[in-house]
Specification:
By secondary structure, the protein is an all-alpha fold. It has a three-stranded antiparallel β-sheet. Helix 4 runs antiparallel to helix 5, helix 12 runs antiparallel to helix 13 and helix 12 crosses helix 14. The longest helix has 47 residues. The chain is globular. The termini are far apart.
């Protein structure tokens, strides 16, 4: 499979080495030292260098292919980066193609020819070994005899078909090799068969990562989302804190492919980062993912699965996060949020929105959502502007929305109709009169107090559950002590019972 056909600009279709945090497999691009870029030169905000160290090599290939299309960096540097990335895989033909582009007119080097021969030999050897196992497990009679108990399944296969765990592990190695040469669909199948039979926990975890990457690169988004959630459960169940932080960082980066390709992916990203564990991961390990959280919160504005109150809550949390993490990371998307909801500077927000549009056009994950993002951003600008004004000049608001007067008028009319806002349009003065009804201050206090009471009750229940468990344990210990004191082996009650049960001494006979 030629990776240059993967993830084209619209990504109609979108090796396996165990995930690891390492330095970028290609030489980093020169650091940005130019002045603030225009909306058409957004190299300073490109995240490729930050994303690639958290990705498998095959997952990074589509990013570099897209980077070559954007022309943000010199073509020869990107081409060299693509070659350095590909030569660490077994996609020999793709590597040779890149080498030819870098060295036009020269013959293929011997190392590539040797690697091709070794890859073909390895593939044939593993295929023969895997065929023995596949012939058995694909037998309908065998499938009908397998159960959920893996140990029992292995014993059944060994007793009836002479298959041992080492032969089953061949499926893992063959699936891994298929991944390294770019056969992602076959790799996913082999890794799945291995997981349902093996009891090796380390290889099972590794195969989960491999199957997730295979599903992503073969465009199986439903299976990828299911695998992503399953892998999240595995990571969250238990590991050393530092290892958990590392694996959660990988999950968030690998999950970007799913979050921005699956129909429900944006909602999933918002819910994931509502979790304290993954929010802490973002703040600690990868604050640049704040860009994608910002985009996701804007894109779920009309989500059919998230309630409007949940969307508003997510927006409030986003504003707080942008304000707290501004010292670590900022870009036009986060600056737009800051100017709109923290500084209430509508002119600066308008400027940042224009830059955000250009940034989205050059972002691999967001490019397909440019129109939806801009529409939501304009909605939030209008909402914030109308909240603090009673009389609005349509021409002025249109300017702030980067729209013409005619487009702005249509936008505002549709906005008032869709949101059922209590407003009147004066076409003579070309203004909008907002009839705002603010809640009474006492009502606001009651609502906030109600929320405080609920949180206090939840906290009290949590404390009682912890304290109740300790108290119950102490009571059990006391009861056990009392039982030992009353009827135990060394207690007074025990001695009394033994004395009552002891036989009376025999009378001394005259003869004695």
């Amino acid at each position: 499979m030629n990776p240059t056909r993967l993830f084209q600009r619209k990504r109609e279709n979108v090796g396996f080495s165990p995930p690891r945090r390492s330095s970028s497999p290609f030489s980093p691009f020169p650091p940005a030292s130019s002045p603030l870029p225009t909306p058409f030169t957004m190299a300073e905000f490109d995240l490729t260098q930050r994303l690639v160290p958290f990705l498998d090599r095959h997952l990074a290939v589509p990013l570099l292919n897209f980077l070559a299309e954007t022309e943000l960096f010199p073509a020869n540097e990107v081409l060299q980066a693509q070659y350095d990335l590909a030569k660490g895989t077994n996609m020999v033909d793709y590597t040779a193609e890149l080498w030819q582009k870098l060295n036009e007119g020269q013959s293929e080097p011997e190392e590539i020819t040797k690697k091709r021969s070794e890859a073909l030999a390895t593939n044939e050897s593993l295929q023969q070994k895997a065929k023995t196992v596949l012939d058995v497990i694909q037998n309908p009679d065998v499938l009908a005899s397998l159960t959920q108990d893996k140990t029992r399944n292995q014993a059944f296969l060994k007793d009836n078909y002479n298959l041992n765990p080492e032969q089953i592990t061949v499926l893992y190695h063959f699936g891994q090799f298929q991944y390294t040469i770019g056969n992602y669909s076959e790799a996913s199948d082999y890794l799945y068969h291995f997981r349902i039979l093996s009891t090796d926990s380390a290889l099972i975890l590794s195969s989960q990562w491999g199957k997730l990457a295979s599903n992503i690169l073969s465009g199986q988004w439903d299976a990828a989302l299911e695998e992503l959630n399953s892998l999240r459960d595995t990571v969250d169940r238990g590991a050393a804190p530092l290892l958990q932080l590392q694996q959660r960082s990988w999950l968030l980066h690998w999950g970007l492919y799913v979050f921005f390709n699956h129909p429900q992916g944006r909602e999933a990203l918002v819910e994931w980062l509502a979790s304290p564990a993954y929010l802490n991961t973002l703040q600690t390990s990868c604050p640049w993912l704040l860009r994608y959280l910002t985009a996701a919160v804007f894109l779920v504005r009309r989500s059919p699965t998230l309630a409007p109150s949940r969307v508003k809550q997510a927006l409030r949390e986003l504003v707080r996060l942008v304000q707290a993490e501004g010292y670590q990371y900022t870009d036009p998307l986060t600056e737009f949020v800051r100017q709109l909801y923290i500084d209430f500077d509508f002119e600066s927000a308008q400027h940042e929105l224009a830059k955000a549009e250009a940034l989205i056009e050059n972002d691999f994950f967001l490019i397909d959502f440019k129109d939806d993002f801009v529409e939501s951003a304009r909605y939030f600008i209008s909402e914030a502007y109308c909240r603090i004004h009673q009389k609005i000049d349509i021409a002025d608001l249109s300017t702030r929305l980067n729209m013409s007067a005619e487009e702005g008028e249509k936008w505002i009319v549709n906005l008032i109709r869709d949101t059922r806002t209590d407003a009147k349009i004066d076409f003579k003065e070309n203004t909008v009169h907002m009839n705002q009804s603010h809640p009474h201050i006492l009502q606001s206090i009651i609502e906030r107090s109600r929320g405080l009471t609920f949180r206090s009750q939840a906290l009290g229940v949590a404390i009682n559950s912890v304290g109740g468990g300790e108290q119950q344990q102490q009571q059990q210990q006391q009861q056990q002590g009392q039982r030992r004191g009353q009827g135990g082996r060394g207690g007074q009650g025990g001695r009394q019972q033994r004395e009552d049960a002891a036989p009376a001494p025999a009378p001394v006979s005259a003869e004695a």
